[in-house]
Amino acid sequence: MADLSTELCGIKLNNPLILASGIMGVTASSLANVVKNGAGAVTIKSIGPEERKGHPCPVITTWEAGMMNAVGLSNAGIDRGIEEIKKFKEMCDAPIIGSVFAFKQSLFGELTEKISTVNPDLIEINISCPNVESEAGTPFALDAKAAYSVTKHVKEKTKIPVIVKLSPNSLNIKEIAKECEKAGADAINMGNTLGPGLLINIETAKPILANKFGGISGPAIKPIALKRVWDVYEAVKIPIIGTGGVTNGRDAVEMLMAGATAVGLGTAVYSRGIDVFNKINDEIKGFMKKNNYKSIKEMIGKAHV
Amino acid sequence: MCDDHKTEQPTIVEILNIKDEAKDIKTFYFKYNLDAKPGQFFILWLPGINEKPFGVSYQDEDKFGATICKVGPFTDELFKLKKGDKIGIRGPYGTSFELKGKNIALVAGGYGVAPLSFLADEAIKKGIIVHFIYGAKTKKVLVNCDKKSKKCKVHYTTDDGTYGLKGFTTEKLKEILEKEKIDCIYTVGPEVMMKRVVELSDEFKVDCQLSLERYIKCGFGICGQCVVDDIGIRMCKEGPCIDKKLVKKISEFGKYKRDASGKKVEF
Q1: Residue B191: phi, psi to the nearest 5?
Q2: Number of domains into which chain A is organized
Q3: C-alpha distances in angstroms, B72 versus B7, B50, B69?
Q4: What CATH number matches the domain at B103-266, 3.40.630.30, 3.40.50.80, 3.40.50.2300, 3.40.1710.10?
Q5: Are B109 and B116 a contacting pair, CB within 8 Å?
């Protein structure tokens, strides 16, 4: 029997598929429903210090090769956010990743302290959102020193394992990942959306997204995401969540073989429905059976050898 | 990428006609075969401004209509538009009402009249007898939804008695349920009203379907903004039209909804 379980920072996942932050992640009820549909773990939509309504709509659009979004980090604020995590833990046994975002290092620390009080299994620091540059400036994830500094600061505030979510935009991703590891990061999520990009409605000569630009996800970015995971795997020893363009079982196995310990899913919920987790798990299992793999572990980083 | 839609990008359509219905209420007719089923919604894009979901109040082969009330900055901009202007639409999205039986009751409160007017048209086409109960606060904001068919009788109610019966739609519904054998009740409107409609449907052992409005951002089931507690289903995808069996599993029904940030807002 093919064993789909994997382990991330000492946390056991029944299967390697993790709901990525920002998708179906506003409430505990929604996250629990995603678990029912087969996710091995779920990530809450990134929580910030205060309530934010996000950008005007459209916040998400699609084209033939993927999706583009600029939701603008809408969230109900940390105090309400931690209530949802608490509720999820009452509803569901699957691991939950508490994701936080801020525009200042000290705020990342405060949010981490607060979110730790409700004991998410893992904490993800989202230092790579590409959609709020006007407010936030260059994301921490694009600068090795800033990434080191924020990771170190956050690590001092919690005992819960910390995942740092990096950006596929970084060309020096090896250096950035190494700095995060040095600062004590327990895992890397590689990574956020690529871009931002632009799509224009030609009849009206207007950008489609209200924010004009948005982060790109879906099949279009898969080869880039795979290369970034590959590079990070070569640079660090800590585990990697490979996120970007995974739509089917083959894509997921590619991520594992590039070096991911677990695989993030987001846009695939759109292209294949909310039960995409069950579907991809079946596809991975089918592949493993056909190719004599007994466990996920056997495939992690296999393409490097 | 998904179902019938190649992408979720807006299609640009022309405003064919705009009809004044009541104070701050207009029906916009668009030249487009939307192919929606009653109860489904579409998303209207004002390029560079914003985008909002609306119900369909009228549809034929080459056009459809949306009856819209001016309530805020988005509709302020929409109401400035004229015949011939262009806007973007995407959809139709969501679940629809399912017509059941030969004798039905529709209960509309306020703007809920729009999707139920479309449902009444479809029911009449199928030869179903329709008891259409429609309540508004006062005559000024009441839309005429008389149908040309003898199969459909509209019962108007206003809170202040300025038009039709003075009182609530649910009182009229009870009266009809006491006299008639109704096969199914369809309701759209304020949740407090719909809750009472569901209670009456239980009392008289009648099927009931309703439309549950939640804050919709993407419309195609990915952002999670319109998910309801505790069953975690999306009102843009598994809703907005649901039957009463399902609504009873929704713990927030009649109690609260969430705003653009995800914060709970009590009714």
Answers
A1: -65, -30
A2: 1
A3: 29, 12, 9
A4: 3.40.50.80
A5: no
Catalytic residue among A9, A92, A129, A180: A129
Angle in degrees, CA B258, B264, B265, rounded to 5: 85
Instruction: Indicate whether A252 pLDDT > 80.
Output: yes
Cβ neighbours, 10 Å, residue A174? 17
CATH of domain B11-93: 2.40.30.10
Burial A240-260 (b: 16+ CB within 10 A, else e): bbbbbbbbbbebbbbbbbbbb
DSSP character at residue B60: -
CA distance A206 to A204: 5
Residue A17 forms beta bridges with which residues? A263
C-alpha dihedral, A294 to A297 to A298 to A300, nearest 10°: 140
Residue A22 belongs to a domain with what CATH number? 3.20.20.70
Chain B residue with minimum CA distance to A219: B1
Q: What is the pLDDT of residues A130-158, one digit of tens each?
A: 877 667 778 999 999 999 999 999 999 99
Residue-wise pLDDT tens digits, B152-200: 999 999 999 999 999 999 999 999 999 999 999 999 999 999 999 999 9
Nearest beta carbon to residue A60 from set B52, B218, B233: B218
Say whether A77 and B263 touch across the interface (CB within 8 A). yes
ipTM: 0.94
Q: Closest Cα partner for A150 from A138, A135, A168?
A: A138
CB contact B230 to A (< 8 Å):
yes
Cβ of residue B52 closer than 8 Å to a chain A Cβ: yes
Helical axes A249-258 vs A276-290, angle rounded to 10°: 70
- Asked whether residue A95 is assigned to any structural domain, the reply reads yes
Residues of CATH 3.40.50.80 domain(s) within chain B? Answer: 103-266
